[in-house]
């Protein structure tokens, strides 16, 4: 059969499956399985007669999507919250993994800009951080307490205020992505430049080691979550700018839904960062150095594993399950 005729013969069916995947058409589990079996037959045919064709690539992607929908439907009875963090978010992060890479590249670039600006302009830290904060911190450094600013206020009051502020920053990083992703990059720029100048400020006064012992106790979760939130803003923005084969509105709906789920996954890390900053960071210089390192690298392992490694594990597991299912069929 000629490929053109094969496509013409099955085009409407494939478009219908796309609508099922997008949620425009509702199907029960049995109907989903039937669609999947039918699609697998088309994929097998295409792999045999058009192995290097775009049609084969398209059908392989479509079968993967419909299998994920079946997999999700069968897992409805599982704890919804557990499924969300254990499977749904990691699969979305894997799907949009290049946006996480872009967000980290921009973060490193913008932070470097903050460091360089502070190196070549000695007044830059005063402009970015505020003269009052800088003067207070200089006094703290001279007194041998580089993280003294974190010791003011009550523990619970600081925790609540810090957490709400960080969630607000994260929301801006995400929501401002509606402006084609530029808004998210602007917020990321502002915060990254501040971080870079902030760290160089401590280095310039010989207190980088002490500041790092305190700041990165909570900073690992806080900063990493900030980058993931910027990733969500980029997903939202590009869904508007690059709708591909979908209408711009449909692309926005999918981008909004997917990016919001990933954004929600950062909230627990942001809350943990607030708790650490409110209760632990104030004791940073009194703690044994090895304990600081355990907390810092422990947090880095947890959040790094969840967003960088675990999505590949979940995706591989899903693909293996799909391969097994295909073999049974």
From TrEMBL:
Question: InterPro entries from the xrefs?
Answer: SpoIIM-like (IPR002798)
**Record key words, sorted:** Membrane, Transmembrane, Transmembrane helix
Domain of life, per the record?
Bacteria
Q: Does the keyword Transmembrane apply?
A: yes
Segments traversing the membrane: 99-120, 173-203, 215-242, 262-280, 289-309
Q: What Pfam families does the entry give?
A: SpoIIM
Q: From the Swiss-Prot or TrEMBL record, give the protein name.
A: Stage II sporulation protein M
- State the organism named in the record: Chryseobacterium kimseyorum
């Amino acid at each position: 059969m000629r490929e053109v005729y094969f496509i013409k013969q099955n085009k409407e069916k494939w478009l219908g499956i796309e609508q099922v995947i997008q949620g425009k058409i509702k199907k029960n589990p049995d109907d989903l399985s039937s669609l999947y079996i039918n699609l697998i037959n088309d994929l097998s045919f295409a792999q045999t007669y058009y192995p290097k064709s775009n049609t084969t690539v398209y059908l392989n992607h479509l079968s993967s999507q419909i299998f994920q929908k079946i997999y999700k439907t069968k897992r409805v009875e599982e704890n919804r919250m557990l499924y969300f963090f254990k499977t749904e978010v990691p699969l979305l992060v894997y799907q949009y993994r290049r946006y996480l890479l872009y967000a980290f590249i921009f973060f490193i670039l913008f932070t470097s800009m903050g460091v360089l600006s502070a190196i070549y302009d000695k007044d830059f830290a005063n402009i970015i951080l505020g003269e009052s904060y800088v003067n207070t911190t200089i006094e703290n450094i001279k007194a041998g307490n580089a993280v003294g600013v974190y010791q003011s206020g009550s523990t619970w009051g600081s925790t609540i205020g810090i957490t709400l502020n960080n969630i607000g920053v994260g929301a801006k990083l995400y929501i401002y992505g509606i402006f084609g992703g530029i808004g998210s990059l602007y917020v990321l720029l502002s915060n990254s430049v501040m971080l870079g100048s902030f760290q160089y400020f401590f280095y310039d006064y010989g207190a980088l080691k002490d500041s790092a012992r305190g700041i990165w106790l909570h900073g690992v979760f806080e900063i990493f979550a900030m980058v993931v939130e910027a990733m969500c803003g980029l997903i939202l923005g590009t869904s508007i700018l690059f709708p591909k084969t979908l209408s711009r509105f449909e692309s926005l709906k999918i981008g909004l839904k997917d990016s919001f789920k990933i954004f929600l996954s950062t909230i627990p890390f942001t809350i943990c960062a607030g708790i650490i900053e409110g209760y632990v960071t104030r004791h940073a210089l009194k703690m044994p150095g090895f304990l600081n390192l355990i907390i810092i690298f422990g947090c880095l392992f947890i959040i790094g594993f969840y967003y960088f490694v675990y999505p590949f594990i979940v995706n591989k597991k899903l693909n293996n399950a799909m391969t097994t299912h295909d073999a049974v069929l």
